[in-house]
Amino acid sequence: MRKDDMSVLWKRRILLIPITGGIFVRKKDKDVLHPINKISAQDKPPAVLFAVLLGLYITASVLVTVVAHSRETMLIGGAQVSYSVFTGAFTSLGNICIILMVAFYGKIGFFSSLAVLLIQFPVLTTGLVKHHNYQSIPGFFTNVLTIITVILLYVRNRRVQEYQERITFQAVTDQLTELPNRFACMEVLKDLTEKKERFAVVSIDINNFKSINDTLGFKAGNEILAEIASLWDDLAKSGKTGTSDMVGRLGGDEFLILMKGAVTEDDLVRSIGCYEDALSHHLTADGCELYLTASFGYAVYPDHAQNADAVYNCAHAAMEDVKRHNGSGHIRGFTAEILRDDHSLEVEARLRTAIENDSIFFQLQPQYDLSHKLRGFEALARMTDENGNMVSPAVFIPAAENIGVIDKVDSMVFRKAAVFFGELLRKYDVDITLSVNVSVRHLMKNDFMDEVRDIISASGLPADRFEIEITESIMIDSAEKALRVINEIGELGVKIAIDDFGTGYSSLSYLNSFPADLVKVDKSFIDKMNSSDSSKQYVAAIIYIGHVMGFKVISEGVEQDEQVDTLREIGCDYIQGFIWGRPLSADDAEGVVRKQAEPV
Ligand code: C2E
Ligand code: MG
Ligand code: MG
User: Fold this and answer.
1) Given CB 3.0 to 4.6 Å as the disulfide criterion, which of 7, 87, 229, 584 pairs with 589?
2) Does ligand 1 come within 6 angstroms of the Cβ of 391?
3) d(Cα 415, Cα 455) in Å, to the nearest integer?
4) Alpha helices in 2-80 (DSSP H)
5) pLDDT of residue 45
6) Is residue 478 helix, strand or coil?
7) How far is the CA of 500 from the centre of ligand 3 (A)?
């Protein structure tokens, strides 16, 4: 069977899986079973039983004819009994065989039964019509009734079977993309390892997919996933990668490719590179063009691991490593160092302990206006490992989001920084603001506003000295509720800043309905601002639009004098960056304030 035929069969929901190069369909690989085949194989009764039933039926039919016409008798319990009394018994035996054949052997059973039943008609009709052998009348009717029973049984069985096939298909198919799902992938993986064949597992995660969902919504997110799936599936089927591949979706934005036939690791990377290239084709969602990248991690059986779970885990760890180190599209093979580098479980445990011990603390990064006058500070969460070394927020903030404790981290920083700031403002007469980061999860909590009020009253800090930083994604998650909360924050007198503006897939129309005070231009725009006139114009446009909408604008991540010059030229209001101040301990931040103001 050709590859194309395979995919047609799959689409028609016949029990086979589409796979490039036919890993699972070439004759020599026939014994590598797809999970569905495995399941159906378990249900199939042995062929030898079919032969026995057919043989028994033929024997019973011959005996019926023999005994029906026999005038011989035999002695049973002292009485002479005619052989013909066994006609009924042999007829029943034959019918039972027929019914069992139809019940257990599907199409083959049905057509064989029908054939042997129909073959008898000419004999029965000739006997009846030509030779007026009225003894064949019961046999004639039995045959007709058995044929009707066989047809009814077969039709009913077909329906049940089709239903079972549909259920089985659904059990191994990802509903969104129609690719093999996690269960199917893992079963195929197990089969390959049982066959002890060399193959590679590629674990793939689409970069920043969360922000697509956050900004464009789940519907568009799903469309994009389906588009990626069909792009990769077509590529796998085209055979252009040079290897025999099967693409599956494990869930969310996580895909998996099983690859056979790569001789060297270079071959493998080349094949994976084809999938990376395919992603750079224009994908569209909601009429917007998207440029996506993915992280690819691979592991080879049996080089990196000797069982199915382990080889997948190695590929997954390699993929996580790509994410940790690059954050943008790249390919990486598994190495032992990766496991040593994979601190995620450690970080999560450390995070839980830090929350229990209330040991998350904050640093304050100063913000200035362009004349170098202090505007305030942003409080940034900090955590140390068991040796007292700082763990990067780029590591523990996503981990906190993953394990659902980001709101606790936010609160700890918010509360501690507010208490410190309250004391600071009682000591020094300065007009400065404290900014805190609030995650979507935190802001959406029903008691969020109570918490803000409690913190304001406990710290004694005037509400208008507070600023809450949120990202635009909040407007997509639950725009109505977000707007309600944001308005309530505004009514309290607390300021709102839109953090990381320009990242994600921000839409200016959202900004329009966002009752904010400040827009924070993301560092990535500041980084390339001076590299081309268009980049500079882009930042200028954000500042211009921000001003039109009545926001102040601050640029994040300013590191160079030339950037300050440009920002001054294009009318930026404030600067936050290493050039004028790194995140500081509370004491050092107090030192900065002391320089600007006289004690009260
Ligand atoms: P963010 O809110 O955009 O904070 C600014 C980040 O940029 C900080 O990184 C800051 O140290 C860094 N930064 C500022 N100026 C420069 C510069 O000139 N050069 C460079 N290279 N970096 C600069 P940090 O502290 O690592 O925090 C990273 C992110 O973690 C924050 O980005 C924020 O999204 C998140 N985060 C930090 N604290 C909290 C918190 O308490 N709650 C929540 N939900 N997120 C937090
Ligand atoms: Mg921030
Ligand atoms: Mg930011």
Assistant:
1) 584
2) no
3) 6
4) 3-11, 35-43, 47-69
5) 79
6) coil
7) 4
Longest alpha-carbon distance in the chain: 131
What residues form DSSP beta bridges with 362? Answer: 381
The CATH number corresponding to 360-596 among 3.40.980.10, 3.20.20.450, 2.40.160.20, 3.30.1060.10 equals 3.20.20.450
Tokens of 215: 């900004």
Please state, in angstroms and rounded to a whole number, the distance separating the CA atoms of residues 213 and 285. 11
Provide the token pair at 157. Answer: 């069985």
Q: Is the CB of 413 under 6 A from ligand 1?
A: yes
Ligand 1 pocket mutation, candidates 503, 556, 564, 582, criterion most atoms within 8 A of CB: 556
Strand duo 79-82 + 199-206: pairing: unpaired
Q: Where are the alpha helices (DSSP H) in 239-391?
A: 265-279, 308-325, 336-341, 344-356
Cβ contact 368:575 at 8 Å: yes
pLDDT digits (tens, 9 = 90+) for 323-362: 877 655 589 898 877 766 667 777 888 899 999 999 999 9
- CA 9, 15, 21, 27 torsion-angle sign: negative
The string of pLDDT tens digits covering residues 207-242 is 888 777 777 778 888 889 999 999 999 999 998 999
CATH fold, domain 175-342, is Alpha-Beta Plaits (3.30.70)
- CB-based contacts of 481, cutoff 8 Å, min separation 6: 444
Using an 8 Å Cβ cutoff, are 71 and 207 in contact? no
Domain extents for the chain?
A: 45-170, 175-342, 360-596
Residue bearing tokens 């906190």: 400
For the Cβ of 21 lying below 6 angstroms from any atom of ligand 1, the answer is no
User: For residue 397, what are the CA distances in angstroms to 148, 149, 196, 344, 348?
Assistant: 70, 68, 41, 11, 10
Q: Which helix (H) or strand (E) holds 192?
A: helix 182-194
What is the Cβ-side half-sphere exposure of residue 439, based on CA atoms within 13 angstroms? 20
The two three-digit tokens of residue 173, written as one number? 């198919």
Question: Which atom of ligand 1 sits closest to the CA of residue 382?
Answer: 38
Helix extents (H) in 367-469: 393-402, 406-427, 440-443, 448-459
What's the rounded Cα separation, in Å, for the pair 332 and 295?
A: 8
- Residues 354 and 342: their CA atoms lie apart, in Å, by 20
582 C-alpha to ligand 3 centroid (Å) = 14
Cβ burial, residue 419 (10 Å; 0-12/13-18/19+): middle
- pLDDT less than 70: residues of the chain: 1-44, 286-288, 326-329, 339-342, 475-478, 503-511, 513, 598-600
Q: Pairing mode, if any, of strands 294-301 and 288-290?
A: unpaired
Is the CB of 341 inside a 6 Å radius of any atom of ligand 1? no
Would you state the structure tokens that stand for residue 189, as one six-digit string? 């993986």
CB 506 within 8 A of CB 471: no
Taking the CA of 474 as reference, the closest ligand is 1
- How far from each other are the two terminal CA atoms of the chain, in whole angstroms? 87
User: E-strand spans in 57-198?
Assistant: 73-76, 79-82
